[in-house]
Amino acid sequence: MPDPAPSGIRLDQATVRLGGRVVLDGLRLSLSERRIGILGRNGSGKTTLLRLIAGLIAPDQGRVTVEGADPFADRKAALGNLGILFQNPDHQILFPTVEEELAFGLVQQGLPQREALARAHDLLAGEGRSHWAQAPVSTLSQGQRHYLCLLAVLMMQPRTILLDEPFAGLDLPTQARLSRRLAALPQRLVTITHDPAALEGADRVLWLEAGRIALDGPPAEVLPAFIAEMERIGACDADADLAG
Ligand SMILES: Nc1ncnc2c1ncn2[C@@H]1O[C@H](COP(=O)(O)OP(=O)(O)OP(=O)(O)O)[C@@H](O)[C@H]1O
User: Where is the ABC transporter domain (predicted)?
Assistant: First the structure.
């Protein structure tokens, strides 16, 4: 198993404001485990944290580095270091056919189209899905499009893959298949979810609450505490403790 990174993901007092509100509040984190979960309820800042780590937004204060590089300033390094599997495949897919979608990232990185397509065909063959190559993406189901997005990320061989609610909207067999596929990957996975069950196998779970880390530890410690708190909040009629 390759060492996923020399230095991992670091946040140093990273603050993000959106619409005049502090959404991530002075986060200090050093993430180097292979299976990391970020858990939080709706609006806690999970997607914003993912976007920050991915370099899609810059912190208003503080600093973010991924493998030593600033992912916002150094997009080229970020593309090699990080892949993102978005919750909705339709926000990710750009091209009409499967092979074009798979080849795109490598072409962006300077590989000739013919070679990028050949790599796409190799990957599909390895997955037993050679018949997908020329298929219009529009003929794939939601679950298949999600899987295509994962393959597109794997084409780039990033050290770390950020997963945003990877199982949302997938049926149980598709979830089980995707879960096995992800578990077998050598890469570091950072999974963002509101579902504690998705993080039972994690090495480390960070519970994000109102843009801060409420608890950080092994799943056996964090998941029961999170579930108990969600049950407590669920028993109330309104999120009276949510600001704004
Ligand atoms: N562009 C924006 N402008 C203003 N506020 C925003 C913007 N994007 C997100 N927010 C606010 O930031 C907070 C965190 O949002 P974020 O999407 O990161 O949460 P989340 O934990 O991913 O939620 P969910 O589980 O519902 O997807 C929310 O209160 C949200 O309303």
Answer: 9-235
Predicted structure pTM score:
0.87
| Phi/psi at 199 (5° precision) | -115, 15
Q: Does the CB atom of residue 194 touch ligand 1 within 6 A?
A: yes
Q: What is the ipTM of this complex?
A: 0.95
Both structure tokens of 158: 């990033």
User: Which residue has the least CA distance to atom 17 on ligand 1?
Assistant: 47
Burial (Cβ within 10 Å: 0-12, 13-18, ≥19) of residue 106 = buried
Q: For ligand 1, pick from 46, 88, 206 the residue to mutate: most ligand atoms within 8 Å of CB.
A: 46
Say yes or no: CB of residue 43 within 6 Å of ligand 1: yes
Superfamily of domain 33-54+73-96+142-234: P-loop containing nucleotide triphosphate hydrolases (3.40.50.300)
Compute, in angstroms, the gap from residue 231 CA to the centroid of ligand 1. Answer: 22
- pLDDT of residue 1 exceeding 80, the answer is no
Q: What is the pLDDT of residues 39-79, one digit of tens each?
A: 999 999 999 999 999 999 999 999 999 999 999 999 888 87
- Residue ranges per structural domain of the chain: 33-54+73-96+142-234, 97-135
